[in-house]
Specification:
Blueprint (H helix, E strand, L loop, with lengths): L1 H17 L26 H13 L6 E5 L10 E7 L4 E7 H4 L3 E2 L2 E5 L5 E4 L2 E3 L2 H14 L3 H10 L4 E5 L2 H8 L2 E7 L5 E8 L7 E7 L10 E7 L7
Parallel strand pairs: 2-7, 9-12
Antiparallel strand pairs: 1-8, 1-11, 2-3, 3-10, 4-7, 5-6, 5-8, 9-10, 11-12
Helix pairs in contact: 2-5
Bound molecules: 2-acetamido-2-deoxy-beta-D-glucopyranose (3 copies).
Organism: Favolaschia claudopus
Keywords: Signal
Protein name: FTP domain-containing protein
């Protein structure tokens, strides 16, 4: 009886920190990143357009975009990538999940396209009013089981997911720029900043697609690039 009470208190506290409980949100685990490579190329722009149609139908395009899920780091069990930042710079590094779980909420999710689709957190980021507003949108979309089902059917086995549109991407889009990730050689930390479209290199791989953000009216806006080929030196 007593332990049931403690569990209840704990989950209520966690729910307050996260602002809102998202129906069907999976638990974070390093296993959620299983099978991901450093190349986000499974999601092409035409597929991103179709997946953004699903997001738009469920009221998510204001705060979420479509991501070609990938991973640059190799995490040990119990570890998580945690990010914080602002509209011009974000930093992410490896943390112990149990140490930071109450300080963050997932920013990126993988959507498994199995018979029963799953929304699986891939990382954590700091809790801000904007990300809590985004979680409200996601909770509303997830309350309708058709959302995940339609996303998974459209993704049809491709390594796809959704991610919160951070102030960094929003600012970049408003200035006709894109965001680029840079990782350290040890693959334990990364920074992201906005660069001009002219500074995009031919082997940079687009990884994040949004719609209706900033001044663009494009069907999908490419907002983030990860260097590939030789990612760790970029
Ligand atoms: C964002 O954070 C970086 C690093 O802490 C800082 O240099 C920069 O001035 C900040 N930008 C804004 C707009 O606050
Ligand atoms: C885009 O719109 C924002 C306001 O949302 C404005 O501040 C900015 O100057 C605009 N950028 C361009 C390139 O028109
Ligand atoms: C990220 O930015 C910080 C602060 O500017 C810098 O000290 C660090 O070396 C950068 N790390 C990477 C991986 O670029």
């Amino acid at each position: 009886m007593k332990s049931a009470f403690l569990v209840l208190v704990f989950s209520v506290t966690a729910a307050i920190a996260a602002g809102v409980t998202i129906p069907g949100e999976g638990a974070y685990s390093v296993a959620n990143l299983q099978g991901l490579s450093d190349e986000p190329t499974s999601v092409t722009q035409p597929l991103a357009n179709q997946l953004l149609d699903v997001l738009e139908k469920y009221g998510l395009t204001k705060n979420f975009g479509v991501v070609g899920v990938h991973s640059h780091v190799s995490l040990a069990p119990g570890q998580v990538m945690f990010q914080h930042g602002n509209s011009t710079f974000t930093h992410q590094e490896i943390e112990v999940y149990d140490d930071v779980r109450s300080d963050g909420v997932p920013y990126t999710y993988r959507i498994m396209t199995d018979a029963i689709p799953q929304l699986l957190p891939l990382d954590l980021g700091e809790i801000t009013p904007n990300v809590l507003a985004a979680r409200n949108d996601l909770a509303a979309a997830m309350a309708n089981k058709a959302f995940l089902q339609e996303f998974a059917e459209t993704a049809s086995g491709h390594l796809a997911g959704i991610a919160y549109i951070r102030p960094l991407e929003r600012m970049a889009l408003e200035h006709s720029e894109v965001v680029k990730n840079h990782y350290n050689v040890e693959k334990t930390a990364g920074n992201a900043t906005a660069i001009s479209l002219a500074a995009v290199e031919s082997d940079d791989a687009p990884s994040f697609f949004t719609r209706g953000v900033g001044n663009s009216t494009a069907v999908s806006q490419i907002t983030m690039f990860v260097p590939h080929g030789n990612p760790w030196q970029d």
